[in-house]
Amino acid sequence: MVFSETLSQASSLAERALELMRDHSVPPTPANFGVWYAHVSGQYPDLSKAIDALLQRNERFSSGCNEELYRTFFGSEGQTDAVRDTSEKMQDTAVRVIEKLRQAGVDVSSFGEKLAAFGEDVANGGDLGSVIQRMLAETEAARQRNAKLETQLGEATQEIEDLRSHLEDLRIEALTDSLTGLFNRKHFDAQLRRDVLHAREAGEPLCVVFCDIDHFKRFNDTYGHATGDKVLKLVARTLKQSAKGRDTAARYGGEEFGVVLPGTVMRDALAFAEQVRRRLAGKELKTLDGSSSFGSVTMSLGVSQYRAGEPVTHLLQRADAALYASKRDGRNRVTAEAADDLPEAAAS
């Protein structure tokens, strides 16, 4: 967070922040104070929009709610996003400036001044032939300068575009699992926080699916790591085929995968998970030449639904517990979180 208020302004903002925190029973921890100070300062419009939406819904600012606000807007991923956004805006500005320079030409003003001086020479009785010669010479010099400038501007524009492309490649690489092509856990965690905040603001449902490949170690030990990699890629393709719209599928770690399903209730999340399970179990893993088969790959899945105001960690813990219930009950199955833990809307 960066602020530039004077001492008196900062004191006023601090008083307003503390007053709002008292009104909404927000504990005055450093992180919470930072969030509410940023809100009243008006320097973080997205944060203010999120808080205003929660206030309009009479949402209770529980510990989970406060934690998500801080992590979403001021956590490490939020800072990374801010740096990236700023970099992109700077690049866009540079491109626009270069385009305007290309269209207008920086020599126009100087050239116009010289033309005016030539006009004065003629009006004062100067030699017309000499004036015309000088005008032609200056015109040619301006043309050459502009041609050189055009080349330099073109090179600068290309350099900026190359930089933009490189930065985007680096950003995608940092958020992607290199083996499977799915998002990695870092992106999964950050996107889940964003989706949970949106679900809280909009009053929408959200579910998480955890998936774990059955007997994956057996594949590696029996057929080697190359075959294990094929299994991971097969699972990734299956998840990509099933995920739609705003869904986020990621390799969570090792042989475990996660999917965020925004706007999805438990019933539909279970249907999604079952579809993934059936698709994967229906595929046969073969050698490259197709001469032999390693058999089918199965996966155990657990599903949980977000409960308004809870910390994201609780949502993930319930999905993880459901996943291990699937493992415990025989594998190759889908299990929902315990019925008594379901939100009322999902249980009805």
Structure overview:
The chain has 348 residues and is an alpha+beta fold. It has 3 domains: 7-74, no CATH class; 78-175; 185-347, 2-Layer Sandwich (Alpha-Beta Plaits). It has helices spanning 7-23, 30-41, 45-56, 63-74, 76-104, 108-123, 128-175, 185-202, 216-223, 225-242, 266-281, 312-328, 344-347, and strands at residues 206-213, 248-253, 256-262, 284-286, 293-296, 299-305, 334-336. The strands form 2 sheets. A 5-stranded mixed beta sheet has the order 2-3-1-6-7, sandwiched between helices. A two-stranded antiparallel sheet has the order 4-5. The longest helix is centred in the middle third of the chain and has 48 residues, at 128-175. The two termini are 43 Å apart. Mean pLDDT is 79; it is low at 343-348.
Show unreliable segments: 343-348
CATH architecture grouping of the largest domain: 2-Layer Sandwich
Count of DSSP-assigned helices: 13
- Mean pLDDT across residues: 79
Could you give the order of the helices and strands?
HHHHHHHHEHHEEHEEEHEH
The CATH class of the largest domain is Alpha Beta
| Biggest beta sheet attributes | 5 strands, mixed
Global structural class: alpha+beta
* End-to-end distance: 43 Å
Per CATH, the superfamily of the largest domain is Reverse transcriptase/Diguanylate cyclase domain
Give the overall silhouette. Answer: flat
Radius of gyration: 30 Å
Per DSSP E runs of 2 or more residues, the count of β-strands stands at: 7
* Strand coverage percent: 5-15%
CATH topology of the largest domain: Alpha-Beta Plaits
The number of domains is 3
